[in-house]
Amino acid sequence: MLNKHQVILIFAAILLTVLLYFGFGRVPKEAMNTKPSGENDKSEMVLLSAKEKARAELKKEQIDKLQILEKVLASTNNDSTKVETLKQLAAFWYEAGKAEVSGYYAEKISDILNDKEALQIAGTTYRIAIVSSKDENIKDICSQKASKAFEKAIAIDSSNVNYQMQLAMVFVDRPLQDNPMKGILMLRDLNAKYPDNVDVIVQLGKLAIQTGQFDKAIERFKKATVLSPETPSIFCLLAEAYNGKGDKANADLAIRNCKK
Question: Tell me: the pLDDT tens digits for 93-122?
């Protein structure tokens, strides 16, 4: 029987899961296979190794919570319970700052549910790990897994521009050695096809800032503010671009809208 401390830990995990993963549908009864297979074995072993290393950095109360969740996952034969526990594990590791481990569990959920929302979350979590991890091998693995997740989401909903943009950003985050411009070219193609898509415009604007093309960034952000004037963050980016160019007067004007 669970003691009071264990009950509190489970309740906290459930709350965190609701916040991060609200929106998943019900689990198909026939779906439940979280074991690695084929070419995934090696990458899965790397992620599991990363999890064990990260476990050593946890505080006692975190370890207690983790052990409870892992015991539930190992002991249940109920599909819905397994998926809910995987959500809690993904949320746990995300909060612990280990996006690559969170992505591992988010991927398990997407394997079971096979819906676009679950795939999008798995891909996005792995994208975060590409940036946050300091391990080059893990970065490569997360890049591969993120791209696969978004490709699957696109296969389900090919009209979703966001999935296509996220896939392009995977290759921006982790450029391919044999095709380093792939992500940028994909974004440009999306911009040509959907010229009024604010998210794509903003991503291109951010890339322009990173490469010192401040005039191009200003042009893109100004268009984005016209298309989405209710979004303060775009004005913040516009101010950054003006500052990069040394135009303090226009930067100050943009900042006023940024702070609204």
Answer: 999 999 999 999 999 999 999 999 999 999
Q: Which domains does the chain have, with CATH numbers?
A: 4-23+31-167 (1.25.40), 195-260 (1.25.40.10)
Report the distance separating Cα 252 and Cα 259, nearest Å: 11
d(CA 129, CA 120): 14
The pTM assigned to this predicted structure is 0.82
Residues 141-200: tens digit of each pLDDT: 999 999 999 999 999 999 999 999 999 999 999 999 999 999 999 999 999 999 999 999
Q: List the alpha helices (DSSP H) in the chain.
A: 4-21, 40-55, 60-75, 79-95, 99-113, 116-132, 136-156, 161-173, 182-193, 198-210, 214-227, 232-245, 248-258
Residues 6 or more apart in contact with residue 248 via CB below 8 angstroms: 242
The DSSP code sequence of 61-106 is HHHHHHHHHHHHHHH---HHHHHHHHHHHHHHHHHTT-HHHHHHHH
Q: Which residue has 């207690």 as its token pair?
A: 64
